Amino acid sequence: MSKTDELRKIKDEVVAMKGRLADMRREGKYFPVLGEGSHDAEIIFIGEAPGENEAKTGRPFVGRAGQFLNELLEGVGIKREDVYITNIVKDRPPKNRDPQPDEIAEYAPYLDRQIGIIKPKVIATLGRFSMQYIMNRYGLDFELGPISKLHGTVFDTEVEGQSVKVVPLYHPAVALYNGSTRELLKEDFKILKTLV
Ligand code: URA
User: Fold this and answer.
1) Separation of CA 92 and ligand 1 centre (Å)
2) Smallest CA separation from ligand 1 atom 7, residue
């Protein structure tokens, strides 16, 4: 099966899901957000969960946080279409609340499969939920700490026998309201650029 076919199979499975978040799609005319970008991306960005704009369009990071993510990518000369952008949770939590542990557990296997198919060299996590999930999942639990300490650090690990670098980053939504986080994110994107 081609990568595109394998990713489409994941999409079909998520579309068919039933559950607390999936069942809310009907109410707000929301769609699941699987992810977008190159299926051969060297960098995969992983956020938390879709917000309202994302769930309405079915595309990740298209709201204000997404515009800032686009600026960050442009700032270091990385094209959005060359990376892959997704989230741990594929459906919008009501009122944009934080994803709950059982929701992360429910959706994370789809993310794991996406990573296995795309085989990125770099996993860039956006925000602490994504950092915690990925570091626990890929053998970096002993390195975990506050995002204020770990952001911009490059961790080496393996995914299915292949070397992968994990780089925790602040969530761009946090940076919208905090000028110093904005600057830190810009600096951390320069580190990302050196890895590909
Ligand atoms: N925040 C996220 O974590 N993901 C999105 O897709 C949009 C906003």
Assistant:
1) 9
2) 61
